Amino acid sequence: MSPTEPTGGSAAPGTLAAFLQLARVKFLFQSMMVTGFGVTLAVHASGGFSLSWYLLTLGFAWSTHLMTHFCNEYFDLEADRANPSPTSWTGGSRTLVDGLLSPTVSLASAFVTLFAGFALTAAMPTPATRLLAVALMALAWFYTAPPLRLNYHALGEVTCAGVLYGMGPVLAALLQSGSLSPLLLWCTAHVCVLQVLRCLIMNLADIEGDRLVGKHTLASALGPRSLTRLYAVGQGVLYAGVLVLAAAGELPLVVAVAQLACAPAGLHVLHALRTGAMVERRRADNVTFWASMQLPLTTCGTMVALLADLSLRDSPAPAPWVAIAVGTTVVFAWWLTRTALAARRGPVADARPGRPAPVEGQAERA
Questions:
Q1: CATH number of the domain where residue 297 is located
Q2: Beta-carbon neighbour count of residue 353 at 10 Å?
Q3: What pLDDT is attached to residue 341?
Q4: How many domains does the chain have?
Q5: How many angstroms separate the CA atoms of 145 and 154, rounded?
Q6: In a domain, 127, yes or no
Q7: What is the DSSP string of 115-169?
Q8: Closest listed residue to residue 135, CA positions, set 110, 159, 157
């Protein structure tokens, strides 16, 4: 069957609900937090804030993020169909797999959001910011699209981290202040490493379907055991770096505390990997959830800590940004609590035709 042909589904195609499912709106919290993260780092360094540039940055982040979702749904359709045990966070939205919408809807939506991103890029103030934005969109597009298909050649994990948690905050900071601080570079490196580790977990959940269609992710190249060791080393080195920088006075203490407070999420994921959690749908959902949440928890915690550090130094951030940052944090906290409670209840059994139930031993144990 051609990757562009819809499969049969049990629900009527073309609905708004199906389109929202295709868009995977829940992941937009990630790019919202990344934007706030970069803006806060710029505010911490310069003391200034521009609402107009924040809104443009957020619009660009969301349009590019949606573009990536639509692009991935279309070009990953064969792998998603081959995936025997998708989770709530991996394996695609299942909208195209279940025939709820035509694949051409996803591709057309990818182009629409791509053009929206170009329009916002044209409004950026300097050649450096425009060039960075174009590079960001190109890497996001070719994450799954031919001819590069970066996530099919063991480059997807690094590309995703570089685009979302590297270039994203840097672009937000440059649009605010026009310069980059050493603190921004460390904090960006911190979340980039976390995102690489998170992407390894996401691709581990999809490993069976990926291997069936010849999709060579870094996770499939490493295998579960080596991936688990790399995840443990990465988490250890990262938080050791936080301690060293804080002890040397290069990282504000309140920021170090906020970043260290997110370490238990990684420890939970590591423990789950070592006990074979990825072979059972409910536990795999829990693992991918907390691997995903470590990122926005870290960006949110760091953002609040940076604002607190400014207050402790008697140079508080501009009131409009404080209000936006606090509002963003509250919305994220509400969403996280709601999603965590739903995750604890576990996924509802899927009775749709052609969706096999996960069985013990389906995947190689970590």
A1: 1.10.357.140
A2: 9
A3: 79
A4: 1
A5: 14
A6: yes
A7: HHHHHHHHT-SSHHHHHHHHHHHHHHHTTTSTTT-GGGBT-HHHHHHIIIIIIHH
A8: 159
